[in-house]
Predict the 3D structure of the following.
Amino acid sequence: MKEQAGVFNKIAAVSGALGDIGRAVAEVFLRDGFRVALSDVKPAADAQAALIAFGADADNILYTQVDVSSEAEVQKWLSAIESKWGVPQFIIPNAGIVVSGMLTELPQGDVRKQIDVNFWGSYNLAVLAAKRMKAAGLPGRMVLIGSWAAERPNARISSYCISKAAVRMLCKSLALELAAHQILVNEIAPGIVSGGLSKKNQQKDPSLLQTHLDSIPNHTLITVEEIARQVLWLCDMENMNITGTTLLVDGGLSLTSKMTK
Ligand SMILES: NC(=O)c1ccc[n+]([C@@H]2O[C@H](COP(=O)([O-])OP(=O)(O)OC[C@H]3O[C@@H](n4cnc5c(N)ncnc54)[C@H](O)[C@@H]3O)[C@@H](O)[C@H]2O)c1
């Protein structure tokens, strides 16, 4: 994808960028010649190893510590990107956590934390970035990282499922609101990935990996690189009419009723 002066600038903003999926997304953007603003709730010191591993020109990377559930922090981050490079036009709300436990057993504060990060974090980045693009009259692309769990209740992680259902409707609502501004908004809904949150859960409960593999129709965990490639594809400015969609990348998992754990 080539940069076209005056139409779009290859400036991407990725939240949760020190996580497994976020890092892979940042990497494909960098390889494609983007300048990438990465953020994560982790301090800059934690970012050093990841930034060195990217091996890209330091001028193309900007790391900022941001808690996405804070509107003020996200606003400050977007202002910093704008001052350094210009308005980011490729927005990837990716930061996420998973809170385990049944709704009837969890304290309300834990459920709120889940919604704060996954829903409000996505909302803050997507909406604040969209306002800036609209004000500047710039087109753009957004890819929200949702989950196959948006449509599938799972009592082990109920509040996570609720948060991702909200992200799905956020995607559709923003797609409708922003279509006339040539800002296209889509969601990637991964199934079980061989990294990130799923891996952490599998480490806590070692029997989970086999349950996952047995449940996925193609018995294959998704790589972070596969997710990242699809993010880059949905960001292609030559895709003019794909908006409000969910791209399920789940090996057929959502077609089954198998996984109970
Ligand atoms: N791994 C999977 O199997 C899977 C499946 C479906 C969807 N997802 C989604 O993919 C996205 C990325 O998750 P991952 O699997 O790479 O997990 P990960 O834990 O490796 O990455 C998540 C990142 O988000 C950051 N984060 C957490 N709270 C934050 C906050 N308040 N503000 C900013 N950053 C914060 C974490 O520090 C971490 O670096 C999430 O939205 C997750 O729900 C993952």
